[in-house]
Automatic annotation (TrEMBL):
Reversible hydration of carbon dioxide. It catalyses: hydrogencarbonate + H(+) = CO2 + H2O. It comes from Penicillium frequentans. This is Carbonic anhydrase. It is an enzyme of class 4 (lyase). Binds 1 zinc ion per subunit. GO terms for biological process: carbon utilization; cellular response to carbon dioxide; cellular response to oxidative stress. GO terms for cellular component: cytoplasm. InterPro entries: Carbonic_anhydrase, Carbonic_anhydrase_CS, Carbonic_anhydrase_sf.
Length: 292
């Protein structure tokens, strides 16, 4: 049993992200880039109120906007009376497909023969967190499961099937659990409103809140929401690493498991230190490792 192989290693995902930043002229290690927490506090007042992490009515768009930016122009265009986002998206798909085929002539023919993604992404369904886009990657690069608040229920058939297929059959090299700032699901779990079907879904998040109540109550509301995002990612990582297929892949071929937080207000990913102690690794293997 190679316990050392269970340790999280330097992240190739982070290197992929760094490459994307480099293409954009950014350096992720650059201290001038806004941190997650500093961005929360630097939001203008009118946006802070709309983007309160304690609002259960998740805002459609919480990033700062520059009226002169192309994105803003596009948003304005979509709101004209005769424009509909779905119809324009279908038109844009044809343009995108043609342009992508010109720039990468081998891409679609290759994808038609199968997929070999290196990354499994377990993230939130939030529209502001499109994993392939924010990683600067292309179709075929990322296998994905997303749900509300990126909650990894131990018995969830959907996420369990995705993880097993990705790890055992696609043989991905990296599994990522990614939370994000201004998460509506986390905000809901920090409140006490009755939410119907969302209540059982958010139960694991409320349990994390309960176990860490003293810590969360010692923080400001914004800091507490961000801390719960982080704790939820760590909880999700534990669930992922308790799966037999994942444990075997870590031992047998060095599968790496990572925790990230995406800052909606800056577009920047932050990697969490998720190094497990040897004692934790041994206990996990004793309790969860499976054999054929
Ligand atoms: Zn979310």
């Amino acid at each position: 049993m190679n316990v050392a192989r269970l340790a999280v290693r330097p992240s190739a995902v982070a290197r992929t992200v760094e490459a994307a930043y480099s293409r954009a002229g950014l350096q992720p290690s650059d201290s001038s880039l806004p941190s997650v927490s500093s961005h929360v506090h630097r939001l203008p007042a009118h946006l802070s109120s709309r983007c309160s992490p304690f609002s259960t009515s998740a805002p459609a768009f919480c990033a700062k906007t520059d009226p002169s930016s192309p994105a803003s122009a596009n948003a304005d265009q979509s709101n004209t009376p005769n424009s509909d986002r779905y119809s324009s998206a279908l038109r844009q798909n044809k343009e995108w497909a043609a342009q992508t085929a010109r720039e990468h002539p081998d891409l679609f023919p290759t994808l038609a023969t199968g997929q070999q993604p290196q990354i499994l992404w377990l993230g939130c369904s939030d529209s502001r967190c499109p994993e392939t886009t924010l990683l600067g990657l292309k179709p075929g690069d990322v296998f994905v499961h997303r749900n509300i608040a990126n909650i990894m229920h131990p018995g969830d058939l959907s996420s369990g099937a995705v993880i097993e297929y990705a790890v055992q059959h696609l043989r991905v090299n990296h599994v990522v659990v990614c939370g994000h700032t201004f998460c509506g699901g986390v905000a809901a779990a920090m409140g006490n409103k009755q939410l119907g079907i969302l209540d059982p879904w958010l139960l694991p998040l409320r349990l994390v809140r309960e176990r860490n109540l003293a810590l969360l109550q010692s923080l400001s509301e914004e800091e507490a929401a961000l801390k719960l995002v982080e704790l939820n990612v760590r909880e999700g990582l534990d669930v992922v690493k308790q799966k037999g297929a994942v444990l075997n892949a870590i031992q047998e071929r060095g599968l790496q498991v990572h925790g990230l937080i995406y800052d909606v207000a800056s577009g920047v990913l932050r990697e969490l230190d998720t190094q497990d102690s040897e004692e934790t690794i041994k206990s996990r293997l004793t309790a969860f490792a499976v054999r054929d």
